[in-house]
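In the design runs reported in the main text, the only information available to the sequence generator was the tokenized backbone. The following block is the verbatim input for one such run; it is reproduced so that readers can re-run the procedure and compare outputs position by position.
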């Protein structure tokens, strides 16, 4: 109780000065009346909340974990602190003391909810590189050497436009959402691919006298992740974020494109024996809104025994991400 009284006495000078100014503006009572009422002040303390009440609840200070409010009559000055440490100051007028109590409780509850609110890092834009592996190795079998890629120009673009965060505390939770995944696999040689007479993917060498400048296989998927994210040391802003989990993809489109040295272009849409669904593992690490990510697809990319020469390479991608949520 001594500590409570000490805290209350420390606020008396501030209360005197502020009350005198506000009383003159609001015409609630004279300075002399306020000083007389100070003699009948009370202090109440309940957990993380402390209130100083002067007179017949004419002047009151309420202090909680994330807010301080000074009320004189039906006017109040409220200082609120958000979960990111930002402060806001509001001047309010209430029709009754009941409205003041109700609004004050709502502000505190809202601040508590924000403090517990977990926000993951998925929505945003990702830029990276694509490549293949076969049996977890970068050594492509000689039989499918035509699948060799120009790694520096095989790029992907992901646009993650929807996110849902499910937090079990402020610093950790599950993250899911929806995004679009564009992959460009540029071939190293002057070739493309197609579905051969046997129904499997095989090499396609364009005919004609004009040499090939570049060619690629492109795909478009609708992606959905399920990630576990942890934020270190604690909180959302200015902290390290680590996430890992599973990601699934639904094929939307696939096509090959050939550009010749004379500028002529050909584009052929098709399914190219790609499975409708694919899945893999993904991991992300970042600071603030900058992330590094990597994804490796484990499920068969091509239909069984219908990939290049009957084999089934495993695509992966790595890159950087810039998240939208601030």
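Verbatim output:
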């Amino acid at each position: 109780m001594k500590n409570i009284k000490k805290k209350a006495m420390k606020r008396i000078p501030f209360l005197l000065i502020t009350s005198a100014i506000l009383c003159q503006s609001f015409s609630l009572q004279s300075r002399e009346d306020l000083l007389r009422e100070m003699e009948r002040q009370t202090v109440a303390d309940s957990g993380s909340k402390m209130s100083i009440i002067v007179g017949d609840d004419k002047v009151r200070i309420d202090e909680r974990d994330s807010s301080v409010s000074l009320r004189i009559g039906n006017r109040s000055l409220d200082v609120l602190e958000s979960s990111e440490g930002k402060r806001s100051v509001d001047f309010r007028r209430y029709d009754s003391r009941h409205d003041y109590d109700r609004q004050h409780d709502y502000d505190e509850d809202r601040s508590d909810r924000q403090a517990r609110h977990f926000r993951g890092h998925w929505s945003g834009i990702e830029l990276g590189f694509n490549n293949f592996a076969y049996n977890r190795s970068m050594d492509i079998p000689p039989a499918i050497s035509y699948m060799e890629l120009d790694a520096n120009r095989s790029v992907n673009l992901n646009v993650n436009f929807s996110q849902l965060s499910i937090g079990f505390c402020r610093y950790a939770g599950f993250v899911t959402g929806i995004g679009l995944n564009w992959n460009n696999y540029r071939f190293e040689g002057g070739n493309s691919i197609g579905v051969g007479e046997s129904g499997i993917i095989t090499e396609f060498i364009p005919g004609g006298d004009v040499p090939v400048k570049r060619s690629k296989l492109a795909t478009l998927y609708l992606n959905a992740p399920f990630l576990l994210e942890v934020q270190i040391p604690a909180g959302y802003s200015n902290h390290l974020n680590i996430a890992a989990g599973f990601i699934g993809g639904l094929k939307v489109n696939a096509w090959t494109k050939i550009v010749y040295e004379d500028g002529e272009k050909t584009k052929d849409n098709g399914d190219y024996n790609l499975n409708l669904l694919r899945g893999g593992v993904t991991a992300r690490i970042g600071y603030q809104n900058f992330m590094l990510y990597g994804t490796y697809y484990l499920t068969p990319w091509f239909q069984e025994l219908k990939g290049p020469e009957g084999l089934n390479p495993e695509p992966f991608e790595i890159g950087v991400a810039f998240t939208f949520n601030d």
